[in-house]
Design goal:
The protein is α+β, with helices and mostly antiparallel strands. It is built from 1 helix and 3 strands, in the order E-E-E-H.
Length: 64
């Protein structure tokens, strides 16, 4: 594991000047030090292609 591996974490408790809800980058080997102050944020997954084409089809039906 390289030192440059960063994990995104969302603060759950004030830490210094940082407030709850802020997203911080934490080195992977220091995540254990943030327990109680932050929770790991899942990376957003791209939307499926099936849901994207449905919206334009609905708009064309409404226009008719």
């Amino acid at each position: 594991m390289a030192d440059t591996d960063l994990i995104k974490m969302k603060l759950t408790f004030p830490r210094g000047k940082q407030q709850p809800g802020e997203i911080v980058d934490v080195r992977a080997d220091e995540v254990h030090r943030w327990k109680g102050f932050a929770v790991e944020v899942d990376e957003p997954k791209p939307a499926t292609k099936a849901s994207t084409p449905a919206a334009p089809a609905e708009q064309s039906k409404a226009a008719k």
